[in-house]
Write the structure tokens for this entry.
Amino acid sequence: MRREWLYAWLMLLPALVVLATFMHVPAIKTVIASFYSTPHGLRPSRFIGLANYQRMIADPVFWQAMRNNLIYAVIFVPLSMAMALVMALLVQGRIVGRAFLRMAFFTPTVLPLIAVANIWIFFYTPGFGLIAQIRDLFGLPALNLLGTGTTALYAVAAVAVWKEAGFFIIFYLAALQTIPPSLVEAAQLEGASRWQIFRRVTLPLIMPTTLFISVNAVIDAVRLIDHIFQMTNGGPNNATNLLFYYIYRVGFQFWDTSYAATLTVVMIVILSLLALGQIVLVDRRVHYK
Amino acid sequence: MECYYPARMNDAALPASDTASPQGQRPAPGISLRGLAKTFAAQTAVQDVSAEIAAGELTVLLGPSGCGKSTLLRMIAGFEAPTAGEIYLAEAPIAALPPSRRDIAMVFQSYALFPHLTVAENITFGLSVRRTGKAETADRLDRVARLMGLETLLQRKPAQLSGGQQQRVALARAVISERPVCLMDEPLSNLDAKLRAEMRVEIRALQRRLGLTMVYVTHDQVEAMTMADRIVLMNAGRVEQAGTPEQIYAEPATTFAARFIGSPPMNLVPAEALGLPGAAVAGLRPEDIHIAAEGVPARIVSAEYLGADLLVTLAIGAAQVILRQPARTGLPAGPEVRLAWVPDALRLFDATTGHAIGRSPAV
Ligand SMILES: Nc1ncnc2c1ncn2[C@@H]1O[C@H](COP(=O)(O)OP(=O)(O)OP(=O)(O)O)[C@@H](O)[C@H]1O
Ligand SMILES: [Mg+2]
């Protein structure tokens, strides 16, 4: 009995060492750092309690980033998931050019987000970008989507949706493949319409996958910021400043590492609570096979 | 766990309203298949099948694996479009109609129960899709649940049911639709032998009681013989023979039919081995041969004891035959014996085409 435990721990050890070195220890260090001041030249770091957290609550840019991120997530999560599901439903059936469509949908996933950003800059650029040219064609006034405070956030959210929907398709395709065709036939025989089959058979059966994707999408809504560097740098006037991007700025441009650690702790707590909430909430309504 | 009562469907204790089922008001139509064919990209699954499925009867589609039974059934249900031919339901062509408009119920081999719905929701799925009223739905569910003995299982999920119970739910879903035609594709193949025997009786009783026109696919000849009003025997996408179980057993139209039905199957030996003239193939059922004082000389090779019966394998020259006799009759001492047979029971087949000689190829 004791020997088995020993073996089990020995087996787990390599993974544990790697995880601890690169995840657990830094995570704990981050939490500790958030209670200390940032060292400056001759002034070493010292314990300051919750001062960093108080500063955060009073920081208008933090709240703007939070608000931006909320809007970003509210656009990104449902839209990327819905698009993935619709496209998966489209390419699962027997239609002409299925292989081509699948590839086309999947391509954005293969590209790095930085490259995707460059493609979309071409779409958005005022004057000669694709959207500008189309607007021009219809005689509409010029529009600087990325440079205008009211539209920039939506413009960068669209890029993230375009990038991730192609990735989520794969999970939905796999889930759709596990539904036995006879279930759909049984429903057809009963006179169920396509919408009824989707609502009452397909959708409930892919719920576990939907839960999995939604957890991932929420994490992505916080994580996907690469294109901000390329497209807006958080501007104009913090309109596209997202939480994670703000952490980067504070940590690696202002070198205020303690404050960055504080923001990181808050971000991780929010993400954990969201994931937990999703799983608890949805789990009750998900049918696992 | 639950017990199974094969006699439940005939239960006299059920209220009279159950017996006067709505199927009784709507006479079940017959189905007529005319020149049906189905070719998939690489292969022909069904070719030129014509058959009559009589109203209110249980017709079994029987044949070896891959002979096109499922494909034929799926064409009747509307899940496959025939490459050629037409299907008539009560004289109306239906081959162009979608499955839901054919007024046909089906029980799938895998049952096709919705895993996320309860038994009650599974059974009433069709009613709710067709927006049947709450009161009527409850009423019909109640009646069907009692008929199938599912009253206590209505709130369970399919995963919490035994194979036999799942089978009952699948049947209940077909019955509640009150459609007069019911198709079944190997509905018992996932059950163990004992349950299979019980469900056979149940399904047959249900079909009789509701007056359903039923098309039942199986590759199990015992199922076919015990349940069928008529058997359509298929081989390699064609109808080999159609008729009552008795007809097919007694008058196999081809050597294939002779070998497929009966256990052990009909003995087929060259006619000259039995001392008969001509180049035909002679067929004799094992129970029609007996050891006698006079007759064709043969040698006992082995004997298999089955309790009531004894299966004796004998060599007649190069040919082998099996005979069945009551076990208590016993065997003679030596291996050398003489064989005689009931003259009426002898069947002759053309050696090249395999068709029965002196009878029409398909009854
Ligand atoms: N969708 C399909 N595409 C291509 N070939 C098919 C398809 N469905 C069936 N076939 C072929 O058609 C033939 C008949 O198949 P079918 O399923 O009707 O046989 P079956 O008599 O039901 O056999 P079993 O007893 O094993 O179920 C088989 O050779 C099979 O490979
Ligand atoms: Mg089959």
Summary: Chain B touches chain A at residues 77-79, 98-101, 104-106, 108-110, 112, 114-116, 125-126, 129-130, 159, 173, 177 (CB under 8 Å).
